[in-house]
Amino acid sequence: MMSYWNLYFLAKVGLTFTGYIGFSWWLNLLLWLALQPPIGHRLLRHTRAVLAWPAAIALLYADSYLPTLGRVLSQLKALAGFSADYWLELAQRLVNPAALAMAVAGIVLYAALARRVRFATFALAGILSVPLVAAIQDHQAQEEAAGAALAGQGDGSPAGGADAADPDALLQKFYASESQKRTQFTTAGSTPPFDIILLHVCSLAWDDMEFVGQRDNPLLKRFDVLFTNFNSAASYSGPASLRVLHGSCGQTPHTKLYEGIDPQCYVFPNLEKLGYQTAALLNHDGLYEEFAHALEQRGGLAGKLQPNQSAPVHMQNFDGSPIYNDHALLSQWWKKRSAQGGAPTALYYNTISLHDGNRVPGMSSRSSLDTYKPRLVQLMADFDRFITELENAGRPVVVVLVPEHGASLRGDKIQISGMREIPGPRITLVPAGVKLVGMKKKDPAAEPAAPLVMNQPMSYLGLFTLLGDLLSDSPYAESARPLADRLQAPETTPFVSENADVIVMRNAAGKYLMKSGNGEWIPYAY
Question: Would the pTM of this model clear 0.70, i.e. be above it?
Fold first, then answer.
């Protein structure tokens, strides 16, 4: 009975120590023990074999880092929106030829040695080694975290102190601290000094740009401030949009995004109080997972969505819906806004041109992974052209670039390319920036200044604190303070990212930890 079951346990132990899966050692031990006793009765022996397979598969799924069954069921409606073409692409990503070859080689080697080696002993030793190694690693991690907290080396981690080695305590302190943070928008005069355009980009992280060789894209050099350690704190569009629209308050837990929010946290309604006309524009229909509805009902943009169907369609979404050309859409809106004149405007613009599964007419490859780079280059060029239009118009405009989350092009040990269930740093560290359009150069002949690069761990509150400073002390005024002075002591935010089921946090030692559901904190080695 135990012939190939020992291979099952040994393979899982190997995957555990290489970081591909977790391991509930006591459940695995119970299954191993249940398979040990020899059973002479044929019917009982077959019954045990029949019951063992579903138990082993369920245990393997539970030990993996795949979404919980409850999470999968909650997303069935969203998954049903995927086109057959996109499902086929995802299925192809699941097949790893190298992994299949190693699995076949392992089975062949095991079969050759099974008659000569007592693998049951090795399987038991492997199962028992997991909690032993985990205890040793946990002790070492606690010593490192406590030492880093005492030495003040935990830059970018939640507040330390006596509980520096306890992830749950660190997380509670983080949210307690963030719940007290607010920034308030004020202006020196009766009229806001500039327009605001917030470019909210789906599926763009630093890691994605590096993966396709676009980390130094020329567009980023046009920004006045560039945040290299900005955490979007979410790996899906819905919560990411709410986080940015609630960004004048500190970071909240995922669940509270959908509960009552302090009115002071709503960015665009607070801009309206200063005299702004607010608007929202999408380069898609906003129907998938009721994205547009959430913007209106939970994001403070009720009645603000602008029509977009007059712009040309340049690709199709993974559900077959149209995606409109970014430059055309923004340019049309700007011309209309300029013709109307009136009070300064604050625009929320959302683009999904980089979303996984998009189909681009005329491109030879149907794979959205292959088309990501040309789509990114096109999007950056569209934004670049639009900023040039703004500059030519001569109006003062503050352009804020904030991606929702990354595309997860590279994937990692436990997520295939494009999967974003675990909101790790490759997905939520995104290129955010601020561009002051219409600033007059003191020396017209001078070369364009390089962006002011901020490497500190920051998130939405730091971004909107800077915006608030620009509102209260206009950078376009003759006596305006330099940007560098405004960012001498930026509002930083330690790294904590989460979705509905998974939290990723950087501890005092600078290492990433992950917790899924009600499970234990484990190292996240991506």
Answer: yes
